Amino acid sequence: MKNKFNTFKQSYLWYSFKRDKVAIFSMVIVLFLVLSAVFAPLIAPFNPYDPLNIDIMNSELPPFWMSGSDPSFILGTDDQGRDLLSTMIYGMRISLLIGVGAVVLQSIVGIAIGLISGYFGGKLDSFFMRMADVQLSFSYLMVAIFFTAILQAAVGVGRFGEIAVPFLILVIGFAQWPQYARTVRASVLAEKKKEYVEAARVAGFGAGRIMWGHIFPNTLSPILVLSTIQVANAVMSEAALSFLGLGMPISRPSLGSLINSGFEYIFSGSWWITAFPGILLVILILAINLLGDFLRDVLNPKLYKG
């Protein structure tokens, strides 16, 4: 383990990371937000899911620097009287859970299809790529809206709230697998012609072992870059669905549903209910995208100088 860490410290990735202030700052922001979400019960001043912490008489209290505020609620309260800071931390937790879960699902499906399609080629490749073309011809957000609206109408809003997290992971994950499939397929087409693959075939290795044991490790760089981008896209997709009222319910808010719940109050003076969750969402997406841009530049073989 120590040797692997020393190898990483001597790598071009680590060397580039240390010299890139934007990448360091983005990593610090992402780690801070992720750890805040993971340890929300320990960090948040209140538990927004506990009815004992909710008082409707405290609704729409402004942030601490404005008149009429309560020092107990640093960023004010929402329309239900919940501490906005605590609700944002818990909401970010749900947003990240859905985003990461959706990316894990789409990567599993897309990588498997990309490997099989690129390695075997022929009719199997044509079938999978035509499937990807058909799916890419539709906006993934429209696909998610379509299935979410159908399920919400079928089971009811109350029941939908109980299954919203796994369902959003499924619908966002399956809506975006073609990106992984195309990326992996392109890498496989380049790798399978190389000598180490031919040597593995001559040695009698099966197709599964060659694909997963030899070719797949050499496709990890583009997969890593794509994953950072897709996490940001998945979080944005969840926020968009929740903003449209088709995502997380207000009883279990995500950042998107928080923005939606406060949008009707933005012109009545309670701007903070929408503004602060919106700012947090922008910071989260921006930091992830900047980190993804850094990885894309460093892991691009054409830019490698090590």
UniProtKB/TrEMBL annotation:
Species name: Denitrovibrio acetiphilus (strain DSM 12809 / NBRC 114555 / N2460)
PANTHER family xref list: ABC TRANSPORTER PERMEASE PROTEIN, OLIGOPEPTIDE TRANSPORT SYSTEM PERMEASE PROTEIN APPC
Protein name as annotated: Binding-protein-dependent transport systems inner membrane component
Cited PROSITE patterns: ABC_TM1
Keywords: Cell membrane, Membrane, Transmembrane, Transmembrane helix, Transport
Membrane association type: Multi-pass membrane protein
GO cellular-component term (any): plasma membrane
Keyword Cell wall biogenesis/degradation: no
Signal sequence, renumbered to the chain: none
Gene Ontology biological-process annotations: transmembrane transport
Location of the protein in the cell: Cell membrane
Residue ranges occupied by any ABC transmembrane type-1 domain in the UniProt entry: 92-292
Pfam families: BPD_transp_1 (PF00528), OppC_N (PF12911)
Membrane-traversing stretches: 21-44, 94-122, 134-154, 160-177, 270-292
Family, as annotated: Belongs to the binding-protein-dependent transport system permease family.
